[in-house]
Write a structure and sequence with these properties.
2 domains
Length: 439
């Protein structure tokens, strides 16, 4: 283990105990006791290595070998955001800069009857019992060091609560901006989303970077989907060439609920997305879509879990990737069907196009079925552009570069078309077309 790695871990340990030393009576709160237990787990686990099966193809040595400022101040202005070309949207838009909520840049348009939206820090001050009832109830700190680290240092992020029988008209857009113009920065936002019975909401997380220094984002989102509720969840990552991102989204679905997710990774040095869904009710539907475009030496890793614990439910999953240059992609998709989950339908597919001999794609679909009356399937394909289709288009006078771009855009359409927030879908279509047109 390198000296730099030891220093980062030591710094985190020192920072945690320094915070505790000035908390007085707050250190005894139930909220903080959860943080303390998670930090103990982090100390026990340490940072993962490729010897850990879940991190076999994703080495974090480069990520943790640098130092980061975890406590930067927020100095971002509206003018600083112009170059990021954020899509315009009639929505509840909340900005977080280096993990800290920025109310000056944010706008909430929905009424408090429909939805409660606040920063995690403010929500805990105003209603600690409500926040604590959802905080750290879904994630597993004992098996993932980065999740336990986030739990231990959870300070800000968003708290969203949708009461029973409410349909939120305007989407909630969470924009996380890393300001890396001056130094290496790190943030650990914690998002808690609780959707009541027969309630419906659309939520998007967008991650961007300003500046050329390193940024490290370690984000955890917990989503509780109540009975008969519907949640659409989108995650868009368009970060810098020096951005490291590790994100875990943990979902629990109750009876007759619907959950719909799409994760699109456009840019970033190192990206790891964990999407874990526990289907804890009958007659539920979970849909997962993913799209990723690594080039250069970028690394994108998607780990997904669909855990069926109750009968008569369905999950459907489609992930697609286009890899260039010396990039690496990882897909590990798990489907669990527990003994009581009879009449389960679960489908999983991962399809990839590799455009370079130096690019690498690792895929590992997994099925663990403990029930006998189910319909489950999984499959994965990795190949190159369809030469027959390419020849056909070129014979019609289309240049090779344009034909390849059109074929790849069509390849992406299965996922992009599933994004139901118009402004986000249109933004992605433009960025993807521009990215695919590059030589």
């Amino acid at each position: 283990m390198s000296t730099e790695t030891i220093d980062l871990r030591t710094k985190l340990i020192t920072d945690f105990h320094a915070r505790e030393s000035v908390m007085n009576g707050e250190a005894k709160s139930a909220f903080h006791q959860k943080k303390r237990a998670a930090f103990t787990q982090f100390e026990t686990l340490g940072f993962p290595t490729p010897k850990n099966e879940e991190w076999k193809y994703s080495n974090v040595r480069d990520l943790i070998s640098a130092s980061y400022n975890f406590n930067t101040s927020d100095t971002l202005s509206a003018e600083d955001l112009i170059d990021l070309k954020m899509p315009e949207q009639a929505a509840n838009i909340l900005y977080f800069v280096n993990g800290h909520y920025n109310p000056a840049l944010s706008t909430v348009v929905s009424s408090t009857d429909q939805i409660i939206i606040d920063s995690l820090q403010n929500a805990y001050k105003n209603n600690p019992d409500l926040v604590n009832s959802y905080f750290d109830e879904l994630v597993k700190n004992d098996s993932d060091a980065f999740t336990s680290l986030n739990t231990a240092f959870a300070h800000d992020g968003v708290f969203i609560y949708v009461p029973n029988n409410q349909t939120v008209e305007h989407p909630v857009i969470l924009r996380f901006v890393s300001d890396a113009r001056v130094e290496n920065v790190a943030s650990q936002p914690r998002n808690i989303i609780a959707v009541g019975k027969n309630a419906h909401v659309k939520i998007a997380e967008a991650f961007r970077t300003i500046g050329d220094e390193r940024s490290f984002t370690n984000v955890v989102t917990e989503i509780n989907v109540g009975e008969e509720a519907g949640v659409e969840y989108y995650k868009v990552q368009n970060e810098s060439e020096n951005a490291y991102h590790i994100g875990t989204t943990q979902v629990r679905m109750l009876e007759k609920s619907h959950f719909y997710a799409a994760t699109v990774t456009l840019n970033g040095k190192f990206t790891r997305n964990n999407l874990n869904i526990v289907i804890d009710g009958e007659h539920c539907e979970a849909h997962m879509y993913g799209l990723y475009f690594p080039d250069g030496t970028q690394h994108v890793d998607n780990h997904t879990v669909a855990d069926h614990s109750k009968p008569n439910s369905e999950s459907n999953e489609l992930y697609k990737g286009i890899l260039r240059d010396k990039s690496k992609g990882v897909f590990n998709g798990k489907i669990f069907v527990r003994p009581d989950a009879q009449k389960t339908n679960a489908f999983q597919s991962c399809k990839n196009i590799v455009l370079s001999n130096d690019a690498t794609m690792y895929t590992k679909p997994q099925l663990e079925i403990f029930a006998d009356d189910v319909k489950c399937s999984h499959g994965t394909t990795t190949g190159q552009i369809d030469e027959e289709a390419l020849f056909y288009m070129r014979s019609r006078g289309i240049s090779k570069a344009e034909a390849m771009s059109l074929l790849m855009f069509a390849f992406c359409a299965d996922v992009v078309s599933q994004i139901k927030i118009d402004s986000i879908r249109e933004y992605l279509e433009n960025v993807i077309a521009e990215k695919l047109s590059r030589k």
